[in-house]
C-alpha cells in the first residue's frame, strides 16, 4: 500500500509516518515543503494542476494530510488550513479519485464546550478563533468533496517532540532551562482552561486505523482522550517530572484563545465503534515521553 503523508516532517506528521510505516506492506511517501521530502508539495500555494501531477506520480492508495498552520497571520492560516485541503481535494479528484483521504482536523472547530458535556460529531461547529474557523473550512472541503475521505478532529496532542508553539513544548523548554534552582520563578498566564489532552502516539494509531479500515467511514471522527483536564494539572505534572524546585506564578491574564474557549472535551465513542480505537496512553505517559525527548534535544 502506497501512503502519501503530507506534512510528514511536522510534529504530528513524524509520528503518523512512523506508525504508518509499521503497517504490513506499507510504503510511506513523504510530501511537503522540506527539501528532504520525496515529493515537493506546498498545499498553501501550489496550483491544483501541479498538485494533480504530483499525485499522479506518487500513485497513492491513501493520502494523509498532516499539513497545516496553528498560528501566524490570517492569510497564512487561511492558505494552509482552508485553501490547502480544498486544493488537495480538487487534485485528488483528478489524479487519484479512489485513494482514501485522512485529514487531521481540530477540536477547535467546535468552539466553546459546555463544562461536563463531551461534544459529539453531530454538535454544531461554532469556532471563535481564526484558527478554528480555517480548520473548519478545511473540514468542509473534505466532507463535501465526494471522495473517500474522513476528518479526524484531534484534541490537544501531547507527547515527544511537542513544538515550542504549544504549551507543553514551551513548558518543557522553560523547565529544562530552570533546572532545579530553588530560586527559579516561572511566570505563566491563566491555567484554568480545561482541554482534552491526547497522546500524539495515540493520534498516530487512530490515523493508521483510519487508513486501513475497510468500507466507508463516518465523515468526521473525534480523536481525544475523552476527558477534560485543567491546563494547570498538565503544568504541575510536568514540573514534578522535571524535579522543579522553584515557583510557578500564575496570572489572571492568559492567551485570548484560552479565554474564549475555557472548556473542551470530545466524545470519542464513534471512533471506538468505527475504528476500534481508544487512547492507550495516559497523560502521565505523554508527559514522561515529552520530558525525556526534550532532554535529548539539549546539547
Automatic annotation (TrEMBL):
<feature type="domain" description="NAD-dependent epimerase/dehydratase">
    <location>
        <begin position="3"/>
        <end position="224"/>
    </location>
</feature>
<protein>
    <submittedName>
        <fullName>NarL family transcriptional regulator</fullName>
    </submittedName>
</protein>
<comment type="similarity">
    <text>Belongs to the NAD(P)-dependent epimerase/dehydratase family.</text>
</comment>
<dbReference type="Pfam" id="PF01370">
    <property type="entry name" value="Epimerase"/>
</dbReference>
<dbReference type="InterPro" id="IPR001509">
    <property type="entry name" value="Epimerase_deHydtase"/>
</dbReference>
<dbReference type="InterPro" id="IPR036291">
    <property type="entry name" value="NAD(P)-bd_dom_sf"/>
</dbReference>
Amino acid at each position: 500500500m502506497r501512503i502519501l503523508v503530507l506534512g510528514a516532517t511536522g510534529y504530528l506528521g513524524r509520528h503518523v509516518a512512523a506508525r504508518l510505516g509499521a503497517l504490513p506492506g506499507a510504503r510511506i511517501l513523504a510530501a511537503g515543503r522540506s527539501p528532504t521530502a520525496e515529493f515537493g508539495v506546498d498545499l498553501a500555494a501550489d496550483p491544483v494542476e501541479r498538485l494533480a501531477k504530483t499525485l499522479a506520480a506518487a500513485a497513492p492508495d491513501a493520502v494523509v494530510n498532516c499539513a497545516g498552520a496553528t498560528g501566524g497571520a490570517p492569510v497564512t492560516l487561511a492558505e494552509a488550513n482552508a485553501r490547502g485541503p480544498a486544493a488537495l481535494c480538487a487534485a485528488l479528484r483528478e489524479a487519484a479519485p479512489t485513494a482514501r483521504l485522512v485529514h487531521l482536523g481540530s477540536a477547535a472547530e467546535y468552539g466553546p464546550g459546555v463544562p461536563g458535556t463531551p461534544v459529539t460529531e453531530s454538535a454544531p461547529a461554532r469556532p471563535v478563533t481564526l484558527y478554528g474557523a480555517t480548520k473548519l473550512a478545511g473540514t468542509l472541503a473534505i466532507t463535501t468533496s465526494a471522495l473517500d475521505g474522513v476528518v479526524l478532529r484531534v484534541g490537544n496532542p501531547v507527547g515527544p517532540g511537542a513544538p515550542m508553539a504549544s504549551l507543553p513544548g514551551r513548558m518543557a523548554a522553560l523547565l529544562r532551562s530552570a533546572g532545579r534552582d530553588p530560586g527559579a520563578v516561572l511566570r505563566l498566564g491563566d491555567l484554568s482552561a480545561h482541554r482534552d489532552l491526547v497522546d500524539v502516539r495515540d493520534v498516530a494509531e487512530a490515523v493508521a486505523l483510519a487508513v486501513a479500515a475497510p468500507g466507508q467511514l463516518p465523515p468526521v471522527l473525534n480523536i481525544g482522550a475523552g476527558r477534560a483536564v485543567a491546563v494547570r494539572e498538565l503544568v504541575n505534572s510536568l514540573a514534578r517530572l522535571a524535579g522543579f524546585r522553584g515557583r510557578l506564578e500564575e496570572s489572571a491574564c492568559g492567551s485570548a484563545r484560552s479565554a474564549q474557549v475555557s472548556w473542551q472535551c470530545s466524545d470519542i465513542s464513534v471512533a471506538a465503534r468505527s475504528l476500534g480505537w481508544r487512547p492507550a496512553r495516559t497523560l502521565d505517559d505523554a508527559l514522561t515521553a515529552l520530558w525525556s525527548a526534550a532532554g535529548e534535544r539539549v546539547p
